[in-house]
């Protein structure tokens, strides 16, 4: 059988290894000059025009961003249910309540009309997820937020380099979080980067990540230890030099798949959007799980069934809401390999396999 095509693959080269070795030999391995440089270079690379604050995980970034925005007990933040649980978890960790709204079917992102229907007198914010690397409809979501006096936050965990109307994701909300987990479009080994729209949000982010203090032993708030190490920042700095090339490869791979797949619904990209294809997600209307199993057993191709249990059905939340598009996506969505390690022969194998299985199931 042909070599297994994995659904995701971290890309770590000799340059990253050398960077870690350099930091280890320097003796300064906690938060230091590498973190400071990584923050500045991240902002410059993605053209955000914002202060960036490095933290130890994407979830930490969301949590600290919400704390910096003043979200707490008694508040509600509207979030999608079709996403990783960290989105809702971060709201709950502040003592606030995540309120789940439905997604739109084209891009799997929060639907502005559903958000407006979910607003109550306790709602203080809305946190869209730029899912799979496609930006949410920020103009429509911002319009709803403005109408009801809400803050907008961005979960950009999967969307490094994505944009809408020429504006990069991460430059819309009061804060935005990018994940740097190993399987994301770029990594620091583990970590997250948070963008801040204003100096006070930035100051609070830095306070909360560092035990609540700017000056040692002068704690201003009850903070956490969510700092990024210089080891992780060194990895991230190297990855920044490669991520644009990787993104182009993801987009080229996606274009080939979209041009050649038959019998499945490929990703739909908004006219004004740049999709960075963290995942290449199709719909399999009938027996998605069986389709994925056959891809692996018959063709040795991996795939991802992300978020088969929507967040509002998870044990910590158990929200009684009707989210038909969320339910449909959880039932139908399947992510095919699109990462930069998939070569032309791999792409052709994926097309052959998907088209054969789609035809057989027709």
What is this structure's SSE topology?
Elements: H1 14-26, H2 33-46, E1 51-55, H3 58-68, E2 76-80, H4 86-93, E3 97-101, H5 112-118, E4 123-126, H6 138-148, E5 151-155, E6 163-164, E7 167-168, E8 175-179, E9 192-196, H7 199-209, H8 230-240, H9 243-260, E10 273-274, E11 280-283, H10 288-299, H11 324-332, E12 333-336, H12 344-361
Parallel strand pairs: 2-3, 2-4, 4-5, 5-8
Antiparallel strand pairs: 1-9, 6-7, 6-10, 8-9, 11-12
Structure description:
The structure is a single chain. With 362 residues, the protein is an alpha/beta fold. It contains 12 helices and 12 strands. It has a 7-stranded mixed beta sheet, sandwiched between helices. The protein has a 3-stranded antiparallel beta sheet with strand order 7-6-10, with no helix packed on it. Helix 5 packs parallel to helix 6. It is globular. The protein starts with 13 loop residues before the first helix and ends with a helix. The mean pLDDT is 97.
Describe the structure concisely for a colleague.
With 362 residues, the protein is of the alpha/beta class. The chain is 40% helix and 13% strand. α1 (14-26) packs antiparallel against α8, α2 packs parallel to α8 (230-240) and α5 packs parallel to α6 (138-148).
DSSP helix fraction: 25-40%
Helix-strand makeup class? alpha/beta
Model regions low in confidence, pLDDT < 50 over at least 5 residues:
none
| Span between termini | 26 Å
Strand content: 5-15%
CATH superfamily of the largest domain: Type I PLP-dependent aspartate aminotransferase-like (Major domain)
Largest sheet: 7 strands, mixed
Radius of gyration: 20 Å
Counted beta strands? 12
Q: What's the tally of helices?
A: 12
């Amino acid at each position: 059988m042909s070599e297994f095509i994995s659904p995701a693959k971290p890309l770590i080269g000799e340059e990253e290894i050398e960077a870690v070795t350099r930091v280890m030999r320097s003796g300064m391995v906690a938060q230091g000059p590498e973190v400071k440089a990584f923050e500045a270079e991240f902002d410059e690379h993605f053209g955000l025009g914002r202060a960036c604050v490095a933290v130890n995980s994407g979830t930490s970034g969301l949590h600290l961003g919400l704390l910096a925005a003043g979200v707490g007990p008694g508040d509600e933040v509207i979030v999608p249910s079709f996403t990783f649980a960290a989105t809702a978890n971060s709201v709950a960790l502040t003592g606030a309540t995540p309120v789940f709204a439905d997604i739109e079917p084209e891009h799997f992102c929060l639907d502005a009309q559903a958000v407006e229907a979910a607003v109550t007198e306790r709602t203080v914010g809305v946190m869209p997820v730029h899912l799979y690397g496609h930006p949410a409809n920020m103009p429509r979501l911002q319009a709803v937020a403005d109408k009801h006096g809400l803050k907008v936050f961005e979960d950009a965990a999967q969307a490094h380099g994505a944009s809408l109307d020429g504006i990069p994701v991460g430059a819309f909300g009061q804060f935005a979080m990018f994940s740097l987990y190993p399987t994301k479009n770029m990594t620091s080994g583990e970590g997250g980067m948070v963008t801040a729209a204003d100096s006070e949000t930035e100051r609070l982010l830095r306070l909360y990540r560092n035990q609540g203090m700017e000056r040692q032993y002068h704690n201003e708030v009850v903070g956490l230890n969510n700092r990024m190490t210089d080891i992780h920042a060194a990895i991230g700095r190297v990855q920044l030099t490669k991520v644009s090339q990787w993104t182009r490869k993801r987009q080229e791979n996606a274009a080939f798949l979209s041009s050649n797949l038959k019998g499945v619904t490929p990703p739909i990209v908004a006219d004004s959007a740049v999709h960075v294809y963290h995942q290449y997600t199709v719909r399999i209307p009938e027996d998605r799980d069986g389709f994925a199993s056959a891809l692996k057993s018959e063709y040795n191709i991996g795939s991802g069934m992300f978020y088969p249990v929507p967040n509002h059905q998870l044990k910590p939340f158990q929200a009684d809401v009707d989210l038909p598009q969320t339910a449909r996506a959880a039932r139908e969505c399947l992510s095919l390999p699109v990462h930069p390690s998939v070569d032309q022969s791999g792409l052709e194998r994926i097309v052959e396999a998907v088209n054969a299985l789609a035809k057989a199931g027709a």
